[in-house]
Design brief:
Number of strands: 31
Strand order of the largest sheet: 3-24-14-13-9-8-10-11
Largest sheet: 8 strands, mixed
Number of helices: 16
Strand content: 15-25%
Radius of gyration: 24 Å
Shape: globular
Distance between the termini: 51 Å
Structural class: alpha/beta
Length: about 600
């Protein structure tokens, strides 16, 4: 069905004005968006329904650096317990080197990067974009087979591997590449910024345009619809799914959402995005959002150190972020350890008080949110609880300062123009009825994805509801909704309430298993710092009293760990698979499950026969 453009004049005007104001266009675009008449739809590639900023070309160097003070700090890096500050001048020096190296390899080269979030990884990602090349970042802890699978799908010409990557795996990749991928140029990269830089008085009051390194980077005209990067997510079969974004739409939406949700919440003095570079948030809110807005971004050598109270306090006092953006999983871990150690505040330094905090990944429980606001002692009295997907390129909706007071901090805020979210009242699924520039350009998959309905509405594959004040609550993935005797029960709602039962509960996951009588039965897994197993009768009674009899689990099971992706999301599909079949289907893609082996051991230790 053709999309009705007659009702989108306001939308067209908004994105046209915003893009022209924020992006340096080497060639003006023809229109903000139009229907994609050259849809790819074959066995392995499927494109979006819309094109953005058609015929336009971007000068990315000017977009990133024009008018920026060269002596200003762009990156703060917390390494081995101390801080390294990296200025625009330092960063441009390194980018200039990598851009020239990339442009010498091949005209239309693709760049793959295996490396965690760091200033060095950010430098190569930025250099790839400045070169007009498409890049792809992989987690360092992927298996050899998973990496080789992604190499075959992405087809890189250059492979940069961080020196923190396993030497044995590196040697094996080089060996295999010499036989099967002989055309790939492989380089390792290590510390580029390995010392504290002193401020150069000659650079003060000098903008980036006056630097030699700036002028060594060519002024390329990069087409708005050329591909900027691909990120892989778990596929439903044995092949990972590739999500591709384009320069124009992605960059415009990155800056818009960074300004709308983070700068407005106080991130202007520095944002710490506790994420990996191979996750969409690591791209949008640790790299491109800060670069596009001129905001200092902060990295840490190991996210695990933040679970140690003394290291967390030292990190906050040393790097002085004004905004702390974290996965819900990390917040839960910090909460759990702070409870055991009786640490009440993240930092006692009033001078380093955070303006705000944000959350992502898992649904945010109200109890965890209230604890986080008190523990981090933020100036804001709300959490920027973000809702997004890899396919959306950035936040679709999150709480904002103008939303008003809420009783339940698990909300993801109020959707506002220019983004709209509707609920399909047949099944409470969420849909986006109008185009937005952050939508993916194409998907590679061995199974046709279902993203658009016949009315050209984008399907988020999540369920949710609006309260009477128009606050949106997301209940979780559509396949995580549990049907109990005709009642649709949200796994996210069960888990959020369940965590209030006891402070030692670290995390939980509710899944449904098939039942011939009621449709589904609820099995609730939980991880606790308490070594004792709780009375499941009391747990079930607590859920019934706080929700309804339909939320009563059939079984409640304590487990050592839950299967997690690198982004901190719980892979509930694996829990369902194990419960349904009691064996591992090795044809499915488990490459993004970072603790898969530990989870298998934990699951094998369970007593399947006990009755709760």
């Amino acid at each position: 069905m053709k999309f009705d453009f007659s009702s989108t004049e306001r939308l067209e005007t908004f994105w046209t004005n915003y893009a022209n104001k924020k992006i340096h266009w080497a060639v003006p675009f023809k229109n903000a968006f139009s229907e994609n008449l050259n849809n790819i739809d074959n066995k392995f590639e499927f494109s979006t329904n819309f094109k953005w900023f058609n015929k336009g070309a971007i000068n990315l160097k000017k977009t990133f650096f024009s008018g920026r003070e060269s002596s200003r700090c762009l990156i703060s890096y917390y390494l081995n317990g101390s801080k390294i500050d990296i200025t625009y001048a330092n960063f441009l020096d390194s980018c200039s080197y990598f851009v020239q190296s990339i442009l010498q390899i091949k005209k239309n080269s693709r760049i793959m990067i295996i490396g965690s979030a760091s200033p060095e990884t950010m430098t190569i990602i930025t250099s790839s974009a400045l070169s007009g090349k498409c890049h792809c970042v992989l987690f360092e802890d992927l298996s050899i087979d998973s990496i080789l699978c992604r190499i075959k799908l992405f087809k890189p010409d250059i492979l940069y591997i961080r020196d923190t990557f396993s030497k044995d795996k590196l040697d094996e990749i080089k060996k295999i590449a010499s036989n099967d991928f002989s055309n790939i140029h492989i380089e390792t990269y290590g510390e580029i910024y390995n010392k504290k830089y002193s401020n150069n008085n000659e650079l003060k009051n000098t903008t980036c345009e006056n630097l030699i390194s700036y002028n060594q980077i060519p002024d390329l005209k990069i087409g708005a619809n050329e591909l900027i990067f691909c990120l892989f997510t778990s596929g439903s079969t044995g092949t990972p799914k590739g999500i591709w974004h384009s320069f124009g739409g992605y960059l415009v939406y990155s800056l818009y959402t960074f300004e709308e949700f983070f700068l407005s919440a106080g991130a202007k003095d520095g944002i710490f995005c506790a994420t990996d570079a191979a996750w969409i948030n690591g791209h949008t809110y640790a790299i491109y959002g800060p670069l596009l807005s001129g905001t200092r971004t902060i990295f840490i050598d190991s996210l695990n150190n933040l679970q140690k109270p003394d290291q967390l306090a030292n990190f906050l006092e040393s790097t002085k972020p004004s905004f702390f953006y974290s996965s819900v999983t990390l917040l839960r871990a910090i909460r759990s350890i702070s409870t055991v150690t009786n640490i009440r505040k993240a930092s006692n330094s009033i001078a380093n008080k955070l303006a705000g905090i944000g959350s992502c990944g898992e649904p945010l429980a109200n109890e965890v949110a209230k604890w986080a606001l008190d523990f981090f002692d933020t100036k804001n009295n709300y959490i920027v609880n973000t809702y997004f997907q890899t396919e959306t390129s950035g936040v679709i909706v999150a709480p904002r300062i103008g939303d008003g007071n809420v009783d339940d901090f698990s909300t993801v805020g109020k959707p506002r123009f220019p983004i709209k979210i509707e609920i399909n009242h047949k099944d409470n699924s969420l849909e986006i009825p109008i185009p937005w520039p952050g939508c993916f350009s194409k998907v590679t998959s061995d199974k046709k994805p279902n993203y658009w309905n016949p009315l050209n509405k984008y399907l988020l594959h999540d369920n949710g509801y609006f309260d009477r004040d128009n606050f949106l609550y997301v209940g979780g993935r559509s396949d995580d909704v549990i049907n109990i005797s005709g009642h649709r029960v949200s796994s996210g709602e069960i888990e959020s309430v369940f965590l209030q039962f006891d402070k030692s509960l670290r995390e939980s996951a509710a899944v449904g298993i098939k039942d011939p009588i009621v449709g589904n039965k609820i099995v609730l897994f939980y991880v606790s710092t308490n070594h004792e197993v709780f009375d499941t009768y009391l747990m079930k009674k607590f859920l019934v009293n706080n929700l309804s009899p339909f939320h009563r689990p059939w079984k409640i099971i304590k487990i050592a760990c839950l299967p997690k992706t690198k982004s901190g999301k719980i892979a509930r599909r694996i829990l369902r698979d194990f419960l349904d079949s009691n064996y591992i289907d090795e044809t499915k893609d488990f490459s993004t499950i970072v603790n898969y082996e530990n989870f298998k051991l934990a699951f094998q230790e369970l007593n399947y026969g006990r009755k709760n």
